[in-house]
Each structure stands twice: as structure tokens, then as C-alpha cells.
Write a structure and sequence with these properties.
alpha+beta, Jelly Rolls, 7-stranded mixed sheet, 4-stranded antiparallel sheet, 11 strands, 24% helix, globular
Length: 286
Amino acid sequence: MNSIDKSFVNKYKKNGFCYGIEIFSENETNNIRSEIEDLELKFKNGVSGQKLDQYFRVNGHIVIPLLANLSKSPKILDHVELLLGSNILVWSVELFIKEPGSSKIVSWHQDLTYWGMGETDGEVTAWIALSNVTIEAGCMRFIPGSHNKNILKHEDTFHKDNLLSRGQEIKGISEKDAVFAPLRPGEMSLHHGKCLHASGINNSNERRIGVAIRYVKPDVKGTDNDHDFAMLVRGLDDKSGWYNFAGPRGLFNKKDLVIYNYILNYQSKVLMAGANTNEGMYKTIK
């Protein structure tokens, strides 16, 4: 493991989040962003009958090598290893993009609510800024210490401007308790799956782009004892709690698209359980 400042660990354990960790250089960040925007141009008409945004927002690491490789970045994994241990899997990789002046938001929520993993401490989200994610641009904000609470009641809205899978939200959160977590391009935040967080609209003149990578320990298991799917990125999966896949063969490889649809349909049964509609990013592909 490379030499890194370990002071973030205590902040994370106390507050349930930490931010401002430098991961990528300016040049590296610009290159990653350029690759993403090149994909937007090349696949503006979608892929295999789905909009590109479907793959950006749900499990893109299965079919997009860029996103898979980002999740394997040694500097990110070095930080995650200090929180989860030496054996690490990736459960999902998602892009969160808010256009300038966009009304898109993320309501107050806890990540683990619908993931079928229970209230585990064995998951952490790494959120890496690929643009200047200021307060004005709609950066994340957190409630310190809320990771010590149980999962709270969420209400599904499926609102068109909510970037969450079900538009889920927790009512009655006091904004005065919130801490904003702005990030410069190439910086990372880390947050616990029970830590309350949200983000606002993009009032800036620039795109707000970030990638969220959900890491889990091998011993995290579904609450109903079913296996979910993950990609091993460090160490060894010696618990047999997951169906492991190897990552993409290439960009939107046909065989990988079959795997993508299989996993999406499997996960939709968990993520949409109890919902009165099947109209989210995780809706079943027919």
C-alpha cells in the first residue's frame, strides 16, 4: 500500500463521511472526463435499445472498461482498504451528472435502504469529482454521526428530477445540521451506507460530474441469504457470499451486455421490492 495520510479514517468513523482526498491529478481528471464525454457523443442514440444514461447510472462497470478501471484505481483502493480490509469487491459504479441550471437533485436518504445488504458496516461509497463540485454546483451534504442510526423510513416519489433509483427520501431532516462537502476535480469523498446525505440543484455554469463506486467486503451478505453480484478488485473473496464477474471484455461487448441485463433483472427484484411501480433506473428489462 502506498504511503497515504490516514487521518481520514478517524473522521470517517466519527462522522460517517470524509472528503477532500486527492486521488487524480488535473491531467488525469481531464482525461477521464474527456473519455466520458466522448462516450456521450459516440452513443448519443443509445446502446442495445437502452439510453447511454442507463449504463452510466446503473452498473456501468460491467460493460464500460473506463468505469471498471476507475474502480480498480490503486489510490482509491488504498484508502478503502483502511476502512474495509484487504479483500474488496465492487458492487456498483455510477455516474452522477447534473447539467448547468439542471433541476436534478438527490433527496435525503441512506444508501443501504433498498440494497438488500442489511445495516452493514462492510460497505463504503467512494465519490470522485470529475468537475468542480462546489456548493453552487450541488455538492453532497451530510448529517454527521447519522451512520450510527438505524435505517430510517423512506418514502418513494419516483420524481423525474430525483436521481435516486426510486426517488426515495426521508422527511423532516434539519438542514441546519448538514455539512456541505465540496470537491475539486480529482478529489474524493467517502461515506458510510447509513450516513444521511443529499445534494441540490446545479446553479453553476458548468457540468457537475461525479462517479460513485460502491465497495463491499466479501462477508457482506444479502438479508434474504440470496447472492448478489460483484467484481473482485483487491485480495480474495473467501466467503462465497457473492457471484463474482470478471469485468468487461471491451466496450459494450455483446456477451457482457447479456451479463448486464441478467444482473439488472436480478437486482431489480431487490431494489424495487415493495414499490408500487417498476419505473426506476432498475426497472426490469423485458
